[in-house]
Amino acid sequence: MQPSLVLLSARLLDPVSGRMLPQTALAAAGGRIAALGGDAEIRALAGASTTVIDLKGAVVTPGLVDGHLHPVSGAELTQGLDLSGCTDLEAVRAALAGEARRLAPGAWLHAWGLDPNVFGDGAVEAAALSPVLDGVPALLQLFDAHSLLTSPRALELAGVDGPRTFDQAAEVVCDAAGRPTGLLLEDAACELVERAAPRPTREQRRDRLAAALGSMAAAGLTGGHVMDANGDSLPFYAELDAAGELPLRLRVAPWCQPGADSAAVRELIEGQGAGGTLWRTAGVKLFMDGTIDNGTAWLERPDCHGESTHAFWPDPEVYTRVIGELHRAGVPTATHAIGDAAVRHALDSVERATAAGGPSVRHRVEHIETVPDDTLDRFARLGVVASMQPTHCCDFTRADHTDNWSRRLGEERASRAWRCRDLWDAGARVVLGSDWPIAPFPPLGVMAGARHRRPGRDLAQPPHGPEQALTALEALRAMTVNAAWAAGEEREAGRPAVGCRADLTVLADSPLTTAATELSELPVLLTVVDGRPTHRDASL
Q1: C-alpha–C-alpha distance, residues 416 and 340, integer Å
Q2: pLDDT in tens, 357-389
Q3: Do 388 and 430 touch, CB atoms closer than 8 A?
Q4: CA–CA separation, 115 and 21 (whole Å)
Q5: pLDDT tens per residue, range 250-266
Q6: Dihedral sign (CA 68, 72, 76, 78)
Q7: How far is CA 95 from the centre of its chain?
Q8: What is the rounded distance in angstroms from the CA atom of residue 76 to the CA atom of residue 468?
Q9: Interstrand relation of 138-142 and 147-150 (parallel, antiparallel or unpaired)
Q10: What is the model's pTM?
Q11: Is the link from the previous residue into 254 a cis peptide, with omega within 30 of 0?
Q12: Summary mean pLDDT of the chain
């Protein structure tokens, strides 16, 4: 078969050995690496329709894969005002005031990336932003995307005037008199007000998704483990794929929420494997808790406010039974578990499921923000993937533990933050991701954060938990080899070998020799998915 793509004058980096291969050229055909060799040998394979690119000594790695992201919801949530750079209330008020002045009368103000640390020791409530939002219907997404701060006018339009009861651990936060403060915790509560706001058209949402995915490809991503299938996600992926416009290979895990009956679980099982050329449904996403920052995590001891005391599932035993049913059906699960009690229960549930027999299934735990020592070796023993987002530690906590996350946990538990090194040393398969839109998706920034543990916007700050840093090679493996293993694709992805997928990321220099503090700025010259360039720098 004539190659579709030939890459010459390359340095081919093997993330398994950490060494450059002796070959300098690569040919791709049928979406796979068809040949490796010298420049003259591989050039001779090219035909009239082959795309031939001289890489001029650039470094080729197996395609970088984000282990946890939300493309469709992220493309929607990141529309509007970006508050992620605001570090105090004054900056937030100024940004909101400027945005409000630009709005037409009666229009809704949308903002995202609000950091609860800007409220200091005060409550996260709409009153802190008065009078900026007086009369303006506003939805302000907090950075964790598990909570929403709404203005009084937005609550009024949505008809939310007091507490509500939900099937999951969600809450309309109210004051002592039963009046909503504006803070909504978890999806079920947030949706009460979100559905009152005007929605973009389907075409607008599809175009935003396509633009976001294109930016991901330009940042060097060739794939992602997508942790939801909400709304129009699957139809959008199918449309882009059919049109040849899907620039990433996506592995999608739909949600299973509390209240799901046996028919709903059966539907999730029957939906496995659906997909197209570059996307497929594989796995199910569940939630064992919320977040530490908004007091909805599940901790073994309450936080400093007496919060984070219960599971997302009102009856955790029901979650355990669902894990067992999915395991028996051969369906891998990915459980959001941030607090130590949530992580422990997720592992307990997997252990019960595997002890009962059935197929070999690779389950995952997502986030793992704080865990005690006795939890670490269970990941390797149970074969559970540790899916982690180190840039959350970098950008949303502080080395001196004065941030909201650390203050809530207290010194002992805050010192156990994002234990990437300890989990790696305990034999766990650590996979790295961004959880975009929670944190930026560029994979070089994710790998850099795993290495330097510093705020991306101010690298002069001290690192948070530098003893938990990964090496350059480990960080690369966590977004290539380990990501492939987590998906059960280690024989066809994650390595620069003949027969493996031609999903490739081409960098100006080696990520192994580039300093951690400089890695995020390393130019991405070419991204290839299924043997097709999805991003090409003008220099090539």
Answers
A1: 10
A2: 999 999 999 999 999 999 999 999 999 999 999
A3: yes
A4: 44
A5: 999 999 999 999 999 99
A6: positive
A7: 27
A8: 33
A9: antiparallel
A10: 0.94
A11: no
A12: 96
